[in-house]
Design a protein that fits this description.
The chain has helices at 6-21, 98-107, 120-125, 136-142, 158-170, 191-213, 251-263, 291-296, 324-347, 354-366; strands spanning 31-35, 47-49, 65-68, 87-89, 113-117, 132-133, 146-147, 149-150, 176-179, 183-188, 227-233, 236-241, 246-247, 269-272, 310-312, 317-321. It is an alpha+beta fold. It folds into two domains: 6-213, L-fuculose-1-phosphate Aldolase (3-Layer(aba) Sandwich); 227-370, Class II aldolase/adducin N-terminal domain (L-fuculose-1-phosphate Aldolase), CATH 3.40.225.10. The chain starts with 5 loop residues before the first helix and ends in a 7-residue tail after the last helix. The model is unreliable at 72-83 (pLDDT under 50). Residues 10-209 form the Class II aldolase/adducin N-terminal domain.
Amino acid sequence: MSQKFRAERTKVIDLSQDLIRRGLVVRTWGNISHRVPADGTGHSDDFVITPSGRTYDTMIEADLALITALSPSPSHGGKKSKKNKPEKHGPFKPSSEYPMHALCYRLRPGANAVVHTHQRYASALSLLGRDVPLNDDEAAVIGQRSIPTSAYGLPGTKKLHSGVEHVLESNPDADVVLLSAHGVFLCGDTAEHALELAENVEAAAKRVYQELTGSDLHDPTIASGYAVRSEKIDGTTVFYDVNGGVVKPSEEVRASHEQIYATRGDVSAIRECIDSEVQHFRGKQLRPYLDDFAQIVAPAAGPEIGKANVVLGGARALCLGATDDDALAVDSVLRKNARAARIAQVSGADPIAHWECVLMNVVYRLKYSKQAG
């Protein structure tokens, strides 16, 4: 691995692992960067960032992309020139959200680590469509009295980035921004500070969520031996309980899983999502209120077995995947989208436009999902 900016690269890798352990990012979702000094010394707006479609679990320092030529050019009187375009270096394509990180480093000179997460409760609150007020204790640890929300834009687009730019410019004291129907954007003084921000924001968001929805966020009781997942292995369906032990399911459970396997040849793993918020949507249609639901689940999910990777039966919600890891990822996204939908019921927010959902789903299936590694 190149020794250039090794310390900053290591900070990004360590931060990504910390975020995973705390459940604030999953698989390839979100992106993480760290500012680097100019030519090894001084101050710059250049940074290293996680690449597109690479899983945090296996990412190494050499995988990160370096974004340079972002600092003001002396030949232009200290002003950025349109010809002074960013240069991207590295073995993989950088995250499509790198312009959003560049905005933060330009507008927040004290920021040295930037994190874009899809954390569960804060992402859900982005459907409120307004600033999220914080109590005194939360404001003290987060460093702002409320969390503003930027306008919606499709992932990786100028509209999304322009919305973030507007919020950062209009709220000079805000280092945390909710991205409407998308996730969270955090500007940290250090990698450790960025991690603390993400944790404190999620704790505050969970409190606000409970107050707005009245949910007690209980875990539904799981009876001993209850089959919660299955895998198709060499033509045989094997069922597992919540502890991973092989079990014999009820005939109703077996039939529901076998029907999905017979209908969907691309599915080799099924997980039941047992969640207090998801249970509100069993037997109903659930539209995408968050980008990642549209991307990896479908433009809509319901009780029928179709192209969606979620089946919301009246008795149970089932998450489908080519592997158990894929089904687990769908489970995580379903939980987030259910919470976003619950907030939308409070705020009156609409789901993401159908055409945008179709576009995101197609792009994800044909391009982005094939990059993960």
